[in-house]
Amino acid sequence: MVKHRRTYDQEFKLEAVRLVTEGDRKITEVARDLGIDRHLIHNWRAQYLRDGNHAFPGKGHQRPAEEELRRLKKELADVSQERDILKKALAIFSKHPE
Asked: Which of 9, 20, 38, 63 would you label with 31, given CA atoms 20 to 30 Å apart?
């Protein structure tokens, strides 16, 4: 038997966390009512507490800090490549003809 991994959208996760954090309900109770494992809610709650409104960005999306880091790494790689090209060009043009 092949088990398929279920995915949950941001709205579902936020609602599950809200039920636990804003209500008097226990994680096990909410998990049973939603038909999911209680460990999922524990993980979602921890992620929500860590990332706030940026939690659960979805597949292919990143939190703003991660996106900024990715952008800066790409910019650094581009600038490094340009620098290397200019160094090579300088070396070629600064050679003295014999």
From this structure: 63
Question: What pTM did the predictor assign?
Answer: 0.57
Looking at the structure, tell me whether residues 43 and 81 fall in a common domain: no
Please write the tens of the pLDDT for every residue from 4-63.
778 888 889 989 999 998 878 899 999 999 999 999 999 999 988 888 777 877 666 667
Q: Does residue 1 sit within a domain? A: no
Q: Which amino acid is at 84?
A: D
Q: How many domains does the chain have?
A: 2
Q: Among residues 32, 34, 29, which one has the least CA distance to residue 8?
A: 34
Look up the domain containing 51 and give its range.
Answer: 7-60
Return the amino acid letter for 50.
Answer: R
